[in-house]
Design goal:
- This protein has about 140 residues and is an all-alpha fold.
- It has one domain.
- Helix content is about 90%, strand content about 0%.
- α1 packs antiparallel against α3 and α3 packs antiparallel against α5.
- The model has no long low-confidence stretch (mean pLDDT about 85).
Length: about 140
């Protein structure tokens, strides 16, 4: 019985170490990456005119919300012992809804960007084939 308790404690300590290292790195890297995506696609004129720029910016905002709201509370719990979901019923319900909504929104915007790119490629390809056959 004592070995089972020791094994459970060890597994919990491994999970805490993973949240401290990997979770913190994911939060930092994804936040920087998503903010840079938003900055680059909104401030650089050549990329601002790209047809998928709005979809990419929206997907980055959704991903930022998804990662930050979904991963910050567990990492905060490991570092400080404070769980925001236990402190406020409003935060508990809102964070769950916002995490799932932001994830779906980010995925939807990424799919729209891919669909738009594929439609552009297909249109360009079909026009070039038609031009080839029309010229001969």
């Amino acid at each position: 019985m004592s070995a089972d308790i020791d094994r459970a404690r060890y597994l919990l300590s491994v999970a805490d170490m993973l949240y401290k290292t990997v979770g913190s790195m994911i939060i930092i890297i994804s936040t920087i990456g998503n903010l840079l995506n938003c900055f680059v696609f909104s401030c650089i004129p050549a990329l601002n005119k790209h047809p998928n720029a709005l979809f990419i910016i929206a997907a980055s905002v959704g991903s930022l919300i998804f990662i930050d709201i979904g991963l910050i509370p567990p990492v905060l719990k490991v570092f400080t012992g404070i769980t925001p979901s236990n402190l406020s019923l409003f935060w508990c319900k809102t964070s769950t809804w916002a995490t799932y909504s932001a994830g779906c929104f980010s995925l939807m915007c990424s799919c729209f960007a891919i669909k738009n790119t594929m439609a552009t490629i297909n249109y360009t390809y079909s026009c070039s084939i038609n031009d080839y056959f029309d010229s001969n």
